[in-house]
């Protein structure tokens, strides 16, 4: 049981490049989330998917797109990376979108030059 | 809007010391409250939670009590170990989808 997995673990991009962060969970959870973590700011929600086939914006969606490919997978895409998107990105999942515990992946450290 | 405020870190303690990390919140209604822990190089994991006023969450020797009168959810542990060194996040959640996070408090335990 791997839980929540994320790829890649590290990535360096140049300004304007695009990339997709992958996330998968094997817990049969309905809800999935993408966060970014910046120093001194806690976690901020980028996008979430309450259930397969739905996605919604979180607190900081600008510059990002998401795809809920199936129940297991939820990807985050940066179409044109900017230095302000340098951050650590976490994917999480929960059984439902209520008050259930969220389970986190190990994170992707992204640097945009 | 809803918010969570944590004490600034880092908090540095000696092994076996008593730990308190303060957390206060601003929210309408009756949110659920959480403490998550992030060990170096890892993702966050739930440490404990409380879903209603006066509930006490506990796990791994850590405790926190949901105090509605003071809008607080302070994290405590009677005797910390080096292995408790991590970043601790307080968070709240209503029945909607979003967790509201504090900024995190880094805890350093020296042997």
Task: Briefly say what this structure is.
With about 110 residues, chain A is mainly beta. Chain A is built from no helices and eleven strands.
| Rg of chain A computed from alpha carbons, rounded to a whole number of angstroms | 13 Å
Q: How would you sum up the global shape of chain A?
A: globular
| Mean of pLDDT of chain A | 93
Please, how many helices of chain B? 0
N-to-C SSE series of chain A? EEEEEEEEEEE
What's the mean pLDDT score of chain B? 93
Report the structural category of chain A: mainly beta
The first-to-last residue Cα distance of chain A is: 36 Å
Output the helix-strand order of chain B.
EEEEEEEEEEEE
- What's the story with the biggest beta sheet of chain B? 6 strands, mixed
Largest sheet, strands/sense/barrel of chain A: 7 strands, mixed
Structural class of chain B: mainly beta
Categorize the overall geometry of chain B: globular
Helix residue percentage of chain A:
under 10%
- Percentage of residues in DSSP E strands of chain B: over 45%
**Model regions low in confidence, pLDDT < 50 over at least 5 residues of chain A:** none
The number of helical segments of chain A is 0
């Amino acid at each position: 049981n791997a839980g929540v997995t994320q790829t890649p673990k590290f990535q360096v991009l140049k300004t304007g490049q695009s990339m997709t962060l992958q996330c998968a969970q094997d817990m049969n959870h309905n809800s999935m989330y993408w966060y970014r973590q910046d120093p001194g700011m806690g976690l901020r929600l980028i996008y979430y998917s309450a259930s397969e086939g739905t996605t919604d914006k979180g607190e900081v969606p600008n510059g990002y797109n998401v795809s809920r490919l199936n129940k297991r997978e939820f990807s985050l895409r940066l179409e044109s990376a900017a230095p302000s998107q340098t951050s650590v990105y976490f994917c999480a999942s929960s059984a439902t979108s209520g008050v259930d515990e969220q389970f986190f992946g190990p994170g992707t450290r992204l640097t945009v030059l | 809007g809803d918010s969570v405020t944590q004490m600034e870190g880092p908090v540095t303690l000696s092994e076996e010391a008593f730990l308190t990390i303060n957390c206060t919140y601003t929210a309408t209604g009756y949110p659920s409250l959480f403490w998550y822990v992030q060990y170096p190089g890892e993702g966050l994991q739930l440490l404990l939670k409380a879903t209603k006023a006066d509930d006490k969450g506990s796990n791994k020797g850590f405790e926190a009590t949901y105090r509605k009168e003071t809008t607080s959810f302070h994290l405590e542990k009677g005797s910390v170990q080096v292995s408790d060194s991590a970043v601790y996040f307080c968070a709240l959640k209503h029945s909607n989808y979003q967790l509201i996070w504090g900024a995190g408090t880094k805890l350093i335990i020296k042997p």
